[in-house]
Amino acid sequence: MAILLVADLPADEHDLWLRCLREAMPGETIVADRSLADAAAIDVAVVAKPPPGSLTGLPNLRFIQSLWAGVDRLLQDHSIDPAVPLARMVDPAMNIAMAETAQWAVLGLHRRFFDYQAQQREARWLQHDQLRADEVQVAVLGQGQMGSTVADRLRALGYAVEGWSRRSGMPALAGLLARSDIVINLMPLTGETHHFFNRDRFAQMKRRSALVNLGRGGHVADGDLLQALADGQLSRAVLDVFHVEPLASDHAFWAHPHITVLPHIAAWTDARSASAAVASNVARLRAGLAPEHLVDRSRGY
Ligand code: GLV
Asked: Is 128 noted as a catalytic residue in this protein?
């Protein structure tokens, strides 16, 4: 049997993945070009942003491993047989990278480093008040692997951190948003969380609080975010993800004085550590065990 890699990535990154996967699974045949293997021999697909339709015509496909933690795009691809088990990427190195981004954003917001950066461009010497970390309430929305690592590491920095997931219920969310200075989004993107951050949600948030979106662009209604910033309801947004990526060069977010844009790098999938995670799941499959971190399609993640 053979493993097919389908990754819509720049050539050098694609080659790195192929090399790391082959090193992690020396006993497996791994191809990145479908014409190099008999379609019937392919039983596993390892995918990163696969173009829609790229997994059709594989009659013996029995497992799909995502190289991305978020599987929203894969679940929207109706050419993928929903009966084939699909696993999310769960990699401790990625969780830590995500926590580093969250720590940077929270420190920058709390200590006003983003404002000082802007002040420097204007040669403006202005000292702002300093709160203690324990006086800053941080809400982490999404309590999966990444959300919990982020919450733990922010707590270790001394912040007042509270986690929330949809299981905690909407009444709890309203109370948390009303008292949080910083809201970090790490929820999966599903039908239920699409445009979760809209006008009504921003209105529930504490006045002059900040949004850090490390989930998906689809979680945020862009126009409502711009309005909440214009109204002063939100003080700042730090965004790593967007509806359309790369973010168009004429998008209002780029030049906005109160938006910090990152090019979807909050937690890069590391080819070395993630290949080990793939190898472990493939080994489980070959041993007749269920792969880990399978997606529950009814839940949407
Ligand atoms: C990146 O956004 C991922 O889902 O891994």
From this structure: no
